[in-house]
Design a protein that fits this description.
Layout (H helix, E strand, L loop, with lengths): L1 H24 L1 E6 L2 E6 H7 L3 E7 L4 E9 H8 L12 E6 L6 E3 L8 E7 L19 E4 L16 E7 L1 H5 L12 H13 L4 E2 L2 E2 L18 H9 L17 H20 L1
Parallel strand pairs: 1-9
Antiparallel strand pairs: 1-2, 3-4, 4-7, 5-6, 5-9, 7-8, 10-11
Amino acid sequence: MMMKLIKTLIWITIAGLISVGCQALDTLTFREKGFENRLSLADIRSRLTSHIISIYDPYYLKNKKYRAFQLDEVLQLGFQKQPKLLDIHDFVTFHALDGYNPTMDLKRSGTKGGWIAVEDLSWPTGWEPRGGATDLGPFYIVWEGDNQRLETGYPWPAKTVTIELTSFEQSYGNIQPHGVTEDSDVYKGYELFRSRCLVCHALNKQGGDKGPDLLAPKAIGTYRTRMFLKAYIKKPSDYRYTKMPDNPDLSDSEVETIIEYLEHQAQLKQDR
């Protein structure tokens, strides 16, 4: 009798945890320093108008149809329409359930053209499987612009659970190149890294975590030649199967500035 009671209690506990987990997946958290707000999908549906959008999804490599909400409207609702909230922050970080936490440069990229997809209308049941995942929702960040791809600074995280606004100094101050002018190659490389690479790569644990940290525990320039780095940044698909996109639009001189910036940051770390 006692064993039966214990098993019953265990199953009740498991069922409760599953219920809480499902509820959490259906809720989006909005956070900035000193502020936090949560909205369920039902809340968003009741307060905003959804749209049916047709876009080219670069991860499926085909056109997809989603039911979605405009990202700007969701942000204004989630952050309670605080005046100029997006204007006073440099970055937005999308925290996904799988640990992918891409950061987007608001000043450079902006959120126009962004959508939060909540249904996959081009698949008969649920969400179309992708890369081993069978459910990308309910909060999948997508973009409608032809140039709004990961390689140009626009992340596409699935199963987003938290959207966080931060200032650059607050979260990424250590990646700034000190001791150089804004017209230097190092600074130009920094701007390219900030807009295109930071969504996936970190420097000394500051930045994205989809790709390897390029400064810690060792700077990448200490074990990769400049010639290799230049070729790899341009076309990583020539070297390995990787999620890192090719960058055919980057000129040789632009790639050189990124390498100059990485070398500068490595030297700064060594001098500390």
